[in-house]
Design goal:
single chain; alpha+beta; Nucleotidyltransferase, domain 5; 3 domains; seven-stranded mixed beta sheet; five-stranded mixed beta sheet; 18 helices; 18% strand; elongated; disordered C terminus
Length: 459
């Protein structure tokens, strides 16, 4: 069938050389004179060979061609002078049937990834640009359509190629795993801790027991001594299974983060048109660190919003209670006292809605009592660097414009060099320093926003 479509005499060596893909040959029979310069029709170099194709399933050579399917890719021609030329590459891919095992197989494509509409060399350029800019802007620069079906493929390829170049991961003795939400999707973040050094190890695609199990299987489980987790049933189950000899704990950082999130929910509901600069940050800050203008703004806001005032005063009181050695009854007792804070904030005869936003704290205290007490019993607790690292990443994610997981994953893992260490003469990577990570994430966000991209599409 293929030999009826193309003849070797019409193969163009000059255009084949210009294309520069070793396994392909450019044919000219399907060319339109008006588009021949921008559309290259190509076949595999074995197209004109009489050799039988080997079946990948049974390794038999009793095969016959059954059909040809034309597949279109965007490609970029190599150039010694730096001038880029984007073309349409139409690859006429053959399919074969094996008479030994009766299975159909196609010619291998090694110049493009499955499911991608770009060749590898073009997708690598698009992926490199998308690390620091929006995917749409990068595609526009190269004059190619921003294929939403391809962006995940090109970023996963980029990560895979980088992973192949990196040294193996040194399993940290101490990890913290928290589950932030980025545009309503949960992406667990894994950090390795060594004293005051906190490094990003990985960002997982979902918060599920199977996803955790796959990641944990890449670690040396005998080396893990402590794992600080979020109160997530799937995470707890996976960590307890993977690291039976490690201490699985819920830290003070986690408890306080969930309390702050409860306050943030109240602020979101009650703080509409509230004239407090950076209201979430300011209202969640210990009030002893507020400057004079912030104090005035907060005071005016609380005088008008009594439910918010009750939640704010409760939160500030909790910070005082937890300033010294605290226990679970300190937390549960505070939750029980929430109605009193509302009564103190309300005008006479005013009935304020209960602060249900903090109900989850009682659930955490009850369901993860052992994990919290194990943390409280630690002689050497994690330094404040862990809490700062978690907060820095959360703040950076809050500001970053929308992107799909694969883009976010690549931006977090590939934009900053990984630290490494030597052990027994072998080089191991220890992760991405969080300080440099958040600095780069914020830089990317500022760059994207300065271009006034549409955040709904700017991935």
């Amino acid at each position: 069938m293929g030999r009826r479509l193309f003849q070797e005499v019409y193969a163009s060596q000059d255009r084949t050389d210009a294309l520069g893909l070793p396994d392909l040959m450019v044919v000219s029979e399907a060319d339109d004179p008006e588009t021949a310069d921008s559309i290259y029709h190509a076949v595999h170099k074995t197209y004109f060979s009489k050799e039988k194709q080997i079946c990948p399933y049974c390794q038999g050579a009793n095969t016959a061609e059954t059909k040809i399917r034309s597949r279109k890719f965007k490609d970029i021609l190599p150039s010694a002078n730096g001038n880029r030329k984007v073309i349409d590459l139409v690859f006429h891919q053959r399919y074969f049937r094996c008479d030994d095992c009766n299975r159909i197989f196609s010619e291998n494509i090694d110049f493009a990834e499955d499911g991608c509409r770009y060749t590898n060399r073009l997708s690598d350029l698009l992926a490199e640009g998308t690390l620091t800019e929006t995917y749409e802007r990068v595609c526009k620069r190269y004059g190619v359509p921003a294929s939403k079906t391809s962006v995940g493929v090109i970023m996963r390829r980029r990560l895979r190629l980088k992973a192949e170049q990196l040294p193996p991961l040194e399993t940290p003795e101490i990890m913290t795993i928290f589950v932030p939400y980025f545009y309503n999707n949960a992406y667990p973040v894994v950090l390795g801790i060594n004293g005051n050094s906190v490094r990003l190890i990985d960002v997982l695609s979902e918060s599920s027991q199977s996803a955790y199990a796959v990641f944990f299987s890449t670690l040396d489980r005998t080396k893990v001594k402590q794992v600080f987790i979020d109160p997530d049933e799937q995470l707890h189950a996976a960590a307890a299974t993977a690291f039976p000899d490690a201490s699985i704990m819920v830290s003070e950082e986690c408890v306080m983060r969930y309390i702050r999130e409860g306050l943030a929910d109240v602020i979101k509901k009650e703080g509409t048109r509230c004239f407090v600069y950076q209201r979430y940050h300011t209202l969640c800050k210990d009030e002893k660190y507020l400057n004079a203008p912030e104090r005035r703004q907060v005071s005016r806001t609380l005088n008008r919003r009594h439910r918010l005032a009750g939640a704010y005063r409760a939160y500030q009181d909790l910070l005082v209670r937890m300033g010294s050695r605290w226990t679970i009854p300190v937390i549960t007792g505070w939750v029980d006292d929430l109605p009193q804070y509302l009564d103190d904030a309300a005008d006479e005869g005013e009935k304020l809605e209960e602060l249900r936003e903090f109900d989850v704290i009682n659930d955490i205290a009850q369901l993860y009592e052992r994990q919290i007490n194990d943390y409280l019993a630690l002689e050497n607790k994690p330094s404040s660097a862990m809490a700062s690292a978690v907060m820095g990443i959360l703040d950076s994610l809050e500001e970053m414009p929308y992107c799909i997981y694969d883009v976010l994953h690549a931006r977090m893992m590939l934009n900053v060099e990984h630290d490494w260490t030597l052990r027994d003469g072998q080089k191991y990577r220890t992760g991405v320093p969080v300080e440099r990570l958040t600095e780069k994430m914020n830089e990317i966000t500022d760059k994207i926003k300065s271009k006034k991209e549409n955040e709904d599409n700017g991935y």
